Amino acid sequence: MRSIGWWLPSSSSLVCLVALGFAPFAAAGTRVDLDGPWQFRIDADGSGARSGWAKAVPSPVETVDVPHTWGVGAHAEHEGLAWYWRRVSVPAALRGKRLELHFGATCYRARVFVNGTAVGEHEGGHTAWFVDVTKALGDSGLVAVEVDNRPGLATIPGWAMRLKLTGSVWYDWWHYGGLVRDVALVAQERALIRRQVIRSALDGRSATVTTNVVLEGSGAASLSGRVVGPGGEEVATARATVAIDGVSSKQLSFRVAAPMLWHFDAPNLYTLELQLVSGGTLLDARSESFGIRSVEIRERGLWLNGERVRLTGVTRHADSPHEGLAETRGTMKADWDDLKALQVVLTRPVHYPQHPFVLDYADRNGVLLVPEIPIWQFSEEQMSDPKLLALAKQMMREMIEEAGNHPSVFAWSVCNESATSTPGGRAYVKAMVEHVKALDPGRYVTYADDGLPRIQDAAQNANQYTDFIMMNQYFGSWAGPAEGLGPALERVGQMFPDRMVVISEFGLAGPFAPDTAQADRMRIAIMESQLAEFARHDFVAGAIFWCYQDYKSHRNLWPGLTTDWVEMGLVDENRQRLPSYAAWREQTSPARLRVGWTRAGFYRPPTGFRATVERRPLSELPSYGLRGYRLEWRARDHDGTLLASGARDLPVIGAPAVVEGEWPSTSSREIRLELRVERPTGFVAVERTERWWEPRSGGLSPEDAKKKGLAVP
């Protein structure tokens, strides 16, 4: 639930606003933040419930700050149960209302008790959920949460039974447990807006926006909605009368003229605001951003707003040494800012549903996403388990309900590197595609497949049911010699002659080299050669590098280690950049920048430059239109003194754009010219530093020699 802040103006203003359907009432669904200090204890032998921990806090306990994971620190290796406690007092103004406990995510399985009474449970570590605590909590009480992070055969993530013969069935990231996202107490009125499903459709020069509003509670009410444009202007309104009885829904429709389209280089966002009012009382309010854009797959390519694009990106695990999965917004922002510096405009963000901050960031800063549920290396037996299928459907539904209004999301992924070329795997994918299409018919569905080079016929593989292929490939390491990539892509293209392909993983793990430095040099060689190979196949619409940072795991480590950081990142676990960071950034720039000096002599410093900027053609990867870019430049002498600077807006870069600059003649022995081309979002698309220096050094001028008392002829 997202609440809107309202104010109380004069009575005359109130009448005017009520007439429009937007009265300035205080927000109805009130949220009480429960982040911060909780008491915590590991339940090493699983006896906490039998010992009465649901009713009373045992001794001793630790105090931790929620969001929290015990996967960092003294309990990092613990697999099993742990407990959290917090005493909650309901503010007087909220007593008598419906009370709910909302959890951003509890990893992995959780049971909630209030004053000793079990009030709810949840399985799945990366999606939001809530429980009704009205009766159990009363005016105050003890909230106790038991959390279990143990994997199993039918948990998601779970034991990687497809890898049983390797001797290890751990999944390939850390088993973080805890209250890993925000916790809050939410007070509701007799009726509320549970969620809305926003969809938009372009029709010539306008767009139709609909929201299907899910309501809960009882009684008659008025539901009002308005669409606010990217500049804050109201662009459309709608209103309906609703009769709520339990759970019901109501659709509102809006017409938006001349919409500003969302694009990763122009992430225009609209806001849809809702109010539920009865008898002059605001029952609930909700405000969510959305975007209007078209994403199409046709001619074996990806089309964004009518333009064919070929995109690149990098995957990132939600992991760091000091926070683990319980990430702060500061860490997420720093990492995603760095991803944008790495030219990321497309990613399968990782194997599990993302934090709401990440979804909002991608909307506002321009990244296309393919979110996924964490099924990794599952066997046919696991994928054939009806209990696992039911759990997978629940996780997909929760992820779609939470992330479905975000314009950055263009497809969903139902599993990763599992037995999808077996009868049981094919049946799983088919069932999941049908499930997702029923929930969100306007988006594409796929999964990440690492077995495509080994199949003989498309009918063997579950991609016969998907909208496009995501192909994980590690030629040059796990998949075999690097030269196998080209023939593998040819075979995939022939087996699926009507399908677009996105390379959803490629890269290199450290243990394939003698040491970290050599591994990174191999990583650079792989990214350079394989990006070029991908580009040669026009049905490859995107490529996503694995991975942004090194991440904690029990797998894919140097010999002799059972717990460490998997070395596959462009930065290490502490975000220190490797040489491959700069190589990727250069390789995936969407623009080419060439610079030459003007008015320069052999011993005379230049007094100007001439630069050309051009987009990369569709025969390369990445490739997309460049609109609204800007070139900025600065020239400095050997002391760092600014000689001149300038900027040039580049509305559309079609034919190479020429930018020239000049500065006064100088006697400086060095000129340093810095140029950068910025995206409309402010991130740098390409930058270059050019240096001129006088090709003479040392010695004394005749004047300096005389000052030193030396005889000068």
Summary, kept brief:
With 713 residues, this protein is an alpha+beta fold. Helices cover 17% and strands 38% of the residues. The model is unreliable at 1-28 (pLDDT under 50).
Distance between the termini: 87 Å
* Order of adjacent strands in the largest pleated sheet: 3-2-4-10-7-8
β-strand percent reads: 35-45%
Name the average pLDDT. Answer: 94
Radius of gyration: 29 Å
SS class: alpha+beta
| Share in helix | 10-25%
Treating each run of at least 4 consecutive H or I residues as one helix, how many helices?
Answer: 11
Globally, the shape reads globular
Q: Could you give the topology of this structure?
A:
Elements: H1 11-20, E1 30-33, E2 36-43, E3 62-66, E4 81-89, E5 98-103, E6 106-107, E7 109-114, E8 117-123, E9 129-132, H2 134-137, E10 140-148, E11 178-179, E12 183-188, E13 191-203, E14 206-228, E15 234-257, E16 262-263, E17 266-267, E18 270-278, E19 281-290, E20 295-298, E21 301-304, E22 307-309, E23 311-314, H3 329-341, E24 346-347, H4 356-365, E25 368-369, H5 380-383, H6 386-403, E26 411-416, H7 423-439, E27 444-449, E28 469-472, H8 485-495, E29 501-505, H9 516-535, E30 540-545, E31 551-553, E32 564-566, H10 579-587, E33 591-598, E34 608-615, E35 626-637, E36 642-653, E37 657-662, E38 670-678, E39 684-693, H11 702-707
Parallel strand pairs: 23-30, 24-25, 26-27, 27-28, 28-29, 29-30
Antiparallel strand pairs: 1-12, 2-3, 2-4, 4-10, 5-9, 5-12, 6-11, 7-8, 7-10, 13-14, 14-15, 14-18, 16-17, 18-19, 20-21, 21-22, 31-32, 33-34, 34-37, 35-36, 35-38, 38-39
Helix pairs in contact: 3-4, 6-7, 9-10
